[in-house]
Records
---
Amino acid sequence: MWKFLHKLASPPHFYDLSAKMIPWFAIIGGIFIMYGTIAGLFFAPPDYQQGDAFRIIYVHVPAAYLSMMAYMIMAISAGIGLIWRIKLSHAVAAAAAPLGAWFTFLALATGMIWGRPMWGTWWEWGDPRMMSELIMLFLYFGYMALRAAIDDTVKADKASAVLAIVGAVNIPIIHFSVEWWNSLHQGSTLLRDGGPAMPAEMLYPLLAMIFGFTLIFGALLLGRVRTEVLFRERRSRWVRNLVCAQEGRNE
Amino acid sequence: MNERESEPPGLSQGLSSIVRRDILLAWKRPGDVLNPLFFFAMVSTLFPLATGPSAAQLAFSGPGVVWVAALLAMLLSLNSLFLSDFEDGSLDQLILSPQPLPLLSLGKAIAHWLVNGLPLVLVSPLIGVSFQMSGQTITVMLLTLFFGTISLSLLGSIGAALTVGLHRGTALLSLLILPLAMPVLIFGARTVSLAANDTAVSAGIYFLAAYCMLALTLAPFATAAALRISNE
């Protein structure tokens, strides 16, 4: 186990392994998303209250879940990088931030599109989950801005890792404090006592979408980490060998 | 020789001497202390000018205005927290000193609060009165600002340590700290408006006190880690 982890943390090995993993993630994720989209849009029954407008949850819920998941991945790998000084995990944190910010944006945008016909407003200040997502987006912006402001990669890695960890400690507090407001957002339908309050024809496409989004996120993340690793190791021998081999093949 | 063998000063002595040093430095340059205070008063004046002078509206928006102004004033003063130390090399000495760096970071934050936060708390009743707040509301506002400004000094010291030595640090510092400061703002401002409506306020004050304790225990370690990274 330790040997495997140790090997995984070495950039050339990761570069080879991820090349094999990405197609699997992308293909399986793509299949799940295809099933979820078709079943969710055409076969799931319309909601008795919301009609067809509810179908945006098939994008909204996976995006909202991934926006938090990406922050967790970012903070944990930043912490691992800070404590055990593993270069690769700093690259993972750096690659996860823009992806997380985009998923946060997607969750906010789909939430606003849904809120317009349902609540009659694009933006509801009193809703705690909207506010938490917005603050989350600001946290991502702060993280990326700090990274961009420091020229030295090693220093940028460490400083932004401290910020990511401080942010991770604060996220539950932020969430609780906005929760203190009166809520308009409907309670969670999926995670509650007594099982999900949703018929199976609606639920299975949603679960498929969540799973498919996660796999696609994994594929995108691995792809970004690969480019990040290549850039960071651009002066090392294995990258030079790689480029030379590539050029030899092209000639 | 005797000098070298002597024990380094104890923890409390290290803490008190850094607090005393920073207060003395601020005392020599009173402008730096007064500017955030004037800023606080002026931002509070801007809101009535922008929204109109009706007494009902002022009473309604007062708590929020005072809290936003206080938050911005604290941010304004935080930028220079480690700047002079970084520029003249005192920061290296702080990091090399036998005292643990988190303790010294705590001392810096305490001194920052005594110099910038406490005067702001003391001035706030004046603004509260001008916003038609009742005596009881002002008491609650003082309490929330007391705990809130301590938390902001500590939280801000993390951001100041991360951005020290960077170009264009001021805007970056706000971007880093404002999202983290939102719980303080929410509980501070909401508790004061609850007090203005004669509703129970203890929950908000307890929360701010708890947040303050959490910041006191954890923030100095983050600040110390950030200082070590920034000063490499």
Note: Residues 18 and 24 of chain B are 10 Å apart (CA to CA).
---
Amino acid sequence: MNATMSTTKSEPTAIEVENLRKVFRQATTGQSVVAIDRLSLHIAPREVVAIVGQTGCGKSTFFDMMIGLEQPSEGAIRINGKTPYADFDAFRGKMATVFQQDRLLPWRTSYDNARLPLELMGVDEKIQRERAMHWLKRLGLENFANAYPHELSGGMRQRVAIARAFVLQPDILLADEAFGHLDEVTAAELRSTFLALARECGSTAILITHQLEEAIAVGDRIVVFGKSAKLLADIHVAQWKPEDYGLLREAIQATLQSNSPDARLIRAP
Amino acid sequence: MLSDQAHANELTGRFPRQAFVSIVIFCVLWEIMSRLSPSLGIPPFAIPSFVRIGESLMKITPLDVIVTLARVIGALVLSFVGGVVIAMGMYRSPSLENYLHPLVRILMAVPVVSWILFAVLWFRGVEFRIAFVLIAVCGPVFLVDALDAMRGVSKDLRGMMRSFRPTAFQYFTKLMFPAILPSLITSWKINLSLAIRVVTIAELVGAVTGIGHQLAVAQELFSVADVFAWTLVLVVLLFLLEALLVRFEARVLRWRA
């Protein structure tokens, strides 16, 4: 199988990105900036896809459009047949996000932060408590349920943010540089926890990262974005043996630097 | 700028020793001046002794204190609700903000005395006049502070909240209101002292009850002791209300480091 091939249309698709384009108009100069230029991508249910790209390549814009916070200029994103922007409320309780910074509400304890999505959905308080405590326990925070964010370390805060995402047991899980600001040991630990929980919940996950090690460790597929989110490569990691991960990393690095697909990515060795 | 110690005392509500000493020194000097005033050619009523002031304090009518307090609290609650609701409208609608913002700036520039004159000329009911003046003075302060605080809510937190698809009501109650609460409490502190001063002036010119009215009576009787006593009541009232606010602040903002 060609390593650059994406999921074909005949396979079941959880996320379809068709000819997506996003153009921003700069407020100061009035000039148009193309953030995403004709991106097409298909992601199967329960697939974990890591998106890598250099700073300013359109990853975060793509992330915001996936959440439904930004409207596409052209083309479409469909998640389970619905568009996140136009059918915004249809994704209530079905999509969860983990951001670069923990984005915890500072006036809420770990427990109250973790149960926030359930509270917004109007879930019964008893169930809120059970599920929030369950996920806090799974993430090793049962003794910190009553702690405020300022009383926790960066890693612990990010665990609370992960618990907040998983309480929904979401169909779609989105993570934007979720572990990038943590130290390597904490990041590696949280990455594997995140992946295990995503698999357990059967979520389709998209993880945006600039760290290739992270992408290789987490992704079933690695999608490489060039400038304006041009799809440079779509790699099925399973086709690579673990001993060749070093080569894979070098090939992705070369792809990012040259902004064109590296020949080594065409077929797995 | 407050020193660290002064700031800590303000937060904990403790009364520092230095403040106590300075008040005692002031009282002693006042008493000396009171006793020396006849020999200095100052009329005795101008600097009454503390015994005389004490007598005036004993004659304080609680009803007037309660009436003034009720006017202040009532008007502040109305100003707060109105200010925050309009601020929400302006936050959600930039065009509404474009229309209202210049008007609010103009309202804030109008002197208190002008509001009192407008109230006397436009309205008959005393309570309505006082409420009008207080709301006209305090409402814009709540509005501007609430709007600034809403604009200051982190984009990251707004994005996080929206990603979970809250209703508009949930968005306000779970994110915006708790986020702007520290600013709103600061507004309450500012408006409390402002309202106490404004209500006194408003009562002074138009009311037949309240502390302001009693001050007007004392002025007509040339009783500095009564003025002193009623002023003391006002100051103590303000300090008590501020202390309550500080306790409330410590309770609801305990999440702050």
Note: Chain B has eleven helices and no strands.
---
Amino acid sequence: MEKNILLRAEHIDKRFGITHAVNDVSLTVNAGEIRGLIGENGSGKSTFSQMLCGIYTIGGGTFTLNGKELHVRNQVEANDAGVSIIVQETGTLSGLTVAENIFLGHEKPFIRHGIKNTPAMNREAQRLLDEYGFGRIRAGMMIDHYNFEDRKLVEIVKATYMKPLILIVDETTTALSQDGRMELYKIMDRTRADGRTVIFISHDLQEVLAHTDTVSVLRDGEYIDTVASADMTEDDLKRLMVGREIGSAYYRTDWGTPVSDEVVLRAENVTVPGLIRDVSFELHRGEILGFGGLSESGMHEIGKAVFGASWDRTGRVVLADGTEINDIPTAIAHSIAYTSKDRDNESVIVNETIRNNTVLPSIEDLAHGRLLIKRELDRFAKENAEKMQTKMQSTGQFVSDLSGGNKQKVVLARWIGKNSDILVLDSPTRGIDVKVKQAIYALMQELKEQGRSIIMISEELPELMGMADRILIVRDGSISGEYLRDPNLDEETLIAKMV
Amino acid sequence: MEKTMKAERQPSRVQAFLHSDAFRALVPLISLAVMLVAMNILTGGKMLTPKKIRLLVGQVYAPMIAATGVFFIMTLGSIDFTEGSTLGVCSCVIAILSRLDSPIAVPLSILCGILCGAVIGAINGFFHVKFKLASFIVTICTMYLFRGICAYLTTESAIPAAKAITVLDGMEFFEIGGFSVGLKMVITLLVLVTAFILFRFTRIGNDVKAVGSGETAARFSGVRTDRVKFLAFAVAGALTGLAAFVNVIKVGSITATAGNQLETQILIGLVLGGLPITGGAKVRFSNIVCGMLMYFVLDNGLTIMGFDSAPQQLIKGVIFLIFVALTVDRKALKVIK
């Protein structure tokens, strides 16, 4: 394979306040390759790629694409220069049609004398959708009509139809089903076959190894190495990312340990209009109860319902002592904890300090009379942050400065400090690197051993099979299957109940 | 591992200081000092004379009391435009009731004034919380409504307050160095101290900040967000009612323009004091005191310098805009609730 350098990054640098997110990174990417970009949370891979495509301004250093220095101020300019990105979170705008989303910022060819030719735009968009094999998505429909996954497919079309020289795929696969992933891999392969380049960012190392030619590793904002994927194993990559050996014992290793008969929480005919229907289950003392399903199945709402956070819920959520849980303060007062899938909006207050985020649910326990003493709050926050080994400068640091994994540690520290007996963990390891994942699994096991009960909602089947005592599968808002912990359980059985 | 630890973010000392709590605590004080010195120079030393200072302090009581309530609302990330009209209506209520032929007319009128303010605040809070309307929309609507009521009550003529209540203006407890400590100052200090304790050392302050920083996450952490928001508006209304009492004893007779522009004075004052318009964690209590003092230093300074009210408004507008742009927390930026 001849080496034809397409992109050269030299001394790329970026700081956010006092956080040095990307620290003097230099690397080159060849034409016609799929390059993996991996690193733990906060290693700077997203920041790096977002500078490349104009989402962030470049803090220092230069990008040279095809011999020309790149100066882009936004994504549209980046597209024109030949760089496009599919982002981790929703990148489509609601209130616009599918076609308008695809051609956002590139409407010019459809405009005559200042007037947009909507039929022509729709026709072209539909032609593209059909070409990609997503013909069931209609170009003239509002984007809101489609679910999260279909919108991701629209985004893929949007990012690739103009045949960019560099396509950045940032953590997109976690939002896609198996079919969607296969489509994306095909597009990546086609891009490479054309002599263009893909930069593929993912936490799923298996996927990275299977679909890339080379892999670059970042750690704490610094460039570590670029290696050929074929020579690497998952453990090799982990070692490069973390900088030390990581054990492969991830999940629980015990099988067939009996779970107590004591019921600590019972859900009876819980219904939330449009989301879940007639969901009933019992949670036992010391049990890890897993909920699995597609992301739109309604399983995430079950967690909210248990925590008293659903809007118009009917049915009952009752504790062993007969207390009904109908609102969040009651849930917290009765020792229920909740971490949301939507970490930045529902779990942590990002524009607050670590201290205040940690003390919030325990604030009444920490008050002397009615007065709060800052030293006391600080001690509490510090103690629990240390328990979770949160990487931070001080408890006065703002959560917005932290990486995803550390944010999750702040969330968990809050409930550990509250000493909650029932923990509802929705997607606890979503977008989190191996090291923190391992810590979270260990914590769950420890909590279980202390006799606490955990509801774990997850889109990752291996995690459910590895951690849960019992798995409930949710489909279209109802429970469609129940499986006990079993080493012989396989993903296919569960998937069959999900779709 | 050694290597990563060393490479880890070594911010310069200046940077660390600029980000530290201690520095942020000082900013409002420094701004006030700069404003005082600048105005004193611009007015050729006419600003810092005992007479002018007494005048300035006399002006600041009522707005400071009302601003304390608005401070909690703005910490929530909301806004309230009704202070002026609330003060007008409450002043009317107090003036009218003070003339009742009853021995308890004065305490009754004060109580009813505060209650009236609380009801107006509760109306704002109710529409904001129950109907999920943005607070600036609700309070702009109610501002017109209550300004209308105030104008209606004062159509015939100005409403004079009873002598029994206006004498309280001169009520003095003791003197320190030529400064008499009167009723108005005591009330203002009591309000500030109570609010400070609530804000800094109780759950209320914590909850208010949490809602301002991230309402959804606060709700998921057990904060009763709707209750907090409703109470903040009701309390702000009640405090404006109390400010109306201070206003009544000062001016003696209420006209249609009572409390005119009070909401903008407060808004500009709090922003000058460094309160980020998005509210949240970076709000500090000193924003009220320093901010309101700064506003009146600016106001008096401009008057001494001989500016008419029209160019004064223009200058204040420009300064306000600059401060909003400087203090706003762009990371937290969203529509004001």
Note: Chain A has two domains: 5-242, 263-498.
---
Amino acid sequence: MQKLLLLGDEAIALAAVDAGLSGMYAYPGTPSTEIMEFIQASPEAAERGIHREWSSNEKTALEAALGMSYTGKRAMAAMKHVGLNVAADTFINSAITGVNGGLVVVAADDPSMHSSQNEQDSRFYGKFAFVPVFEPSDQQQAYDMVFDAFELSEKCKLPVLFRITTRLAHSRSPISRKAAQPEKKMKMPDEPRQFVLLPAIARKRYRILLSAYESLKYDNRISKYNTFRDGSNRKLGIITCGIAYNYLMENFPDGGPDLPVLRITAYPFPADIIRDITGRCEEILILEEGYPLVEEALRGLLDNNLKILGRLDGTVPRDGELNPSIVARALGLLLAPQLAVPEIVKARPPSFCKGCGHSDTFNAIIEALRSFGMEGVFSDIGCYTLAALPPYSFINSCVDMGASVTMAVGAADAGLFPSVAVIGDSTFTHSGMTGLLDAVVKNSPVTIIISDNSTTGMTGGQKSQATGRLEMICAGIGVGPEHIRVIVPLRKNHDDNVRVMKEEFSYRGVSVIISSRECIQTASRRKRSTTEK
Amino acid sequence: MHSDRIKEKTINNRKMKNDIILSGVGGQGILSIAAVIGLAAVENNLFLKQSEVHGMSQRGGDVQSHLRLSGKPIASDLIPSGKADLIISMEPMESLRYLPWLSKTGWLVTSSNPFINIPDYPPLEAVLNEIKKIRNHLILDADAMAKEAGSLKAGNMVILGAASRFIDLPFLSIENGVRKLFIRKGDDIAEINIRALRAGRRIN
């Protein structure tokens, strides 16, 4: 069969379909978005009727996936690393309930923060929840591992965390497929109280989890992914985790270094495999993408006698993504000579597209708010965060999904007036609605501007749950109908829009301004797809 | 631009190895260049890894892609610094941003047309002078050539055509790749892109 050229994300999606997936659940987030997009475009998924609609946020996605697992069917939830924070309550507790049908949770980490607010390492969540973690080092392995992840999940009755990083998620490589498996039949859990985490049951389930986690270390589906290769030079041993293996091998194109190498791509693993390598080498270099998880475990609190090189002693930079040159430097290898970037090259940060509605919204906000002597608003996560950069420079916060609303409420509590939040439509339905309810209940003097482009723009234009529902939602939450204002952010409406904003900024209660115009990218894509057909 | 005849390369799959950096500004079509080379590589049973930038930088920021072709399995998704055989750039200043990756013997192929969306864009002359300091460089007016081929949007295929002489793939495979990629947008679009590709290839 001809190989398919797929992104790491797409390889995972295809594997899930081939492994008999029944439901895919996700909220868009770089670098995880293409997993769901692939399944949405897959003819097999359409034919089988695999569930593949976006969820409102990562928590609702994981809960729905757990519900599908409850019925005995296979489910996958995919999210970016910070999305797992949103879903953390479900994630940790799903280890205690355990699962019925296989449940695989993909967390796509973004070391170096190419498109994120932090570079947290999701492997810690695996350890925190006591669940197995797979960390593939290449696209083919990612494809193959998904099958084992579902099988292991069903065998040990636990969710499996599938950790990838940006470089694997967004790099293409040829993939060979396995034979497709049928979907699982519906079959309710054998233990009816399993999912009822009343304290008495939870305590029992937690003890079951702890002992299951111990025996996981010796499960073949984990151990086959942690491989040791001896070398004749025993001065240095190398431990690689996930994708770091590739950067090591890149430096030894003729079949790898003549050093002992332990390649880790699945957790938890027993101490024995570490002793195999530490026992025969004077020094150990640890290469892992993300935080020094394995390195800290090996060092322990007291830094035993073993000489360990890694992120903690500065052999490898403490933060940021790895690459072949960083690994070469850590090994003391000679680097190829490098040309410098000429000084005339200037930074080119991302910016609003020409004609973007967010820019018209911000032009109005800036004029209206300056008349109150204010410089800046609380804002949120999406394309509109680009208003933090010149020529706007009018955003004072971007913290997490939905934080604009509740930070504005907190600042209003402290006496800031007017206290204004700007949030996108999809971010609002993700995590802004509950904050708005807080504001309504205590009649907080805040203005929430929903910059509604009717899509999830920054991640490439996925369907927004908010489209066509915003006025209804705000009214339903309890915002007074006279303070739900809808404007169209166009240059010709600028003066009217500024006037509406000034009126609502002066109001000492909750007001919402919905500034609504479709994203020009999705609009032009829609136009193209209708003319092409 | 006088000859339609293109000398075909015979490729030695075992020894073949091309490490390519693609660069430009979000929206200029570098991922389409990568997709065409990818299709051609698969047609020739080569190993391939192609790392892309998605997300925030696609909004008018600088974007790059690492594209690696080889007759043997490829370890890293990223090209080590100082080891790229080729920089293919849709924008002159962007071509310079990735010089730390270019090997001493590598080629830099770029469009001469600046994309100015920042207030401090340097004078174009200064940018072109820096490019001319690179031993192996090829600068071409992709916009004009694409327009002549039928659409300003085909500038990326002009640049790919010009760069194709430094890629160890049969030109015919690259042409097939262009056809495969653009045929879903219609025969006329595919033809314009193939004309643009050929025009780029003929540049001396």
Note: Residues 17-113+122-202 of chain B form a domain with the Pyruvate-ferredoxin Oxidoreductase; domain 3 fold (CATH 3.40.920.10).
